[in-house]
Fold this protein.
Amino acid sequence: MKKNILFIFLLITLTLNGGCHSLRKKFIRKEKEKDVPVYITPKEYPQKPTRDIYIDYYLYTKGWLEELIKALRKGISYKRQKHAIGEAMMNLEQIISFFNQEGKDAIEPLHDQLKKIQAEIKRIPNLSRLKRDSLIRKTQNIKREFDSNYTYTDIKEWLN
């Protein structure tokens, strides 16, 4: 019994008094180092979008529409469907920003249809099979129209 008390007393003594720092320094949090600010030099981009930039956004939009169709068809998670439609909308809006007024007027119905699909997906997280099939058909029609009418050769005159 005396050995246990002696051991506990020794342990407490070493914990409180042992080491290089005082007790106060042991239990006070150390200040975190501040992050060094990062400076980025601005880069000049061409005013008129190049062919490569348009094609990149065209392929991104097309790919995200395919991903949305695949997610709807397999009934994959609501988050994935929401992310796919959000990315498709973002890339389509970037394409629209490249167009002059005539091009914006031409693509506006397609954009509105995609907005309706996005609202529908956000409104109802657990879609029924019938509703998913309806959204798949609508998305396929949008993708088909986008593929056939908005390639770079078709929209050259609409670029700013």
